[in-house]
Amino acid sequence: MKTTAKYLKTLLSYYEEEIEGEAYFYGLADHFEEQEKLTVLARVERRAAESIAPLLEKYELVPRDESELKTRGEAYVGRHASFDWFEFMTYMVNRYP
User: Fold this and answer.
1) Integer angstrom CA distances of residue 44 from 7, 18, 30, 50, 53
2) For 61-77, how does the pLDDT look when each residue is reduced to its tens digit (9 = 90+)?
3) pTM of the full predicted structure?
4) Which is nearest to 55 in space by CA: 86, 11, 18?
5) DSSP character string of 27-57
6) In degrees, to the nearest 5, what angle opens at C-alpha 70 toward C-alphas 38 and 56?
7) What are the pLDDT digits (tens) for 44-59?
8) Which of 23, 41, 45, 87 has its CA 20 to 30 A from that of 70?
9) Cα angle vertex 63, ends 96, 44, to 5°?
10) Which residues, including other chains, have CB under 8 Å from residue 56's CB and lie 6 or more apart?
11) What pLDDT digit, counting tens, does each position of 31-41 carry?
């Protein structure tokens, strides 16, 4: 398979979004009673990022600093912090079918 610029950009974005997602779910855990479920979601995000880290190394891709990515992920918390659990799950199902 030929490695394309689009593939490399997607790979890097995927990794960064997973790190942001981890921070997002951990941040939401402070706003919901379902903290264990949000912790599982955060761990899934971290595991997804870890699973592609070898590809970042292989292609010498350098993601943004993790602290910056976490800050970006935490910034999304406010959008959903006032949701109840059902509203949040409805949002998730519609956003990530």
Assistant:
1) 22, 9, 18, 10, 14
2) 999 999 999 999 999 99
3) 0.92
4) 11
5) HHTTT-S-HHHHHHHHHHHHHHHHHHHHHHH
6) 105
7) 999 999 999 999 999 9
8) 87
9) 40
10) 11, 12, 15, 62, 63
11) 999 999 999 99
Residue 29 and residue 38 in contact, taking contact as beta carbons nearer than 8 Å: yes
Give CA 17 to chain center in angstroms: 4
- Report the length, in residues, of the chain: 97
Residue located via tokens 């903290």: 35
- Cα(55)–Cα(53) distance, rounded to whole angstroms? 5
The position carrying tokens 């979004």 is 17
Task: Give dist(CA 96, CA 30) in Å, integer.
Answer: 22
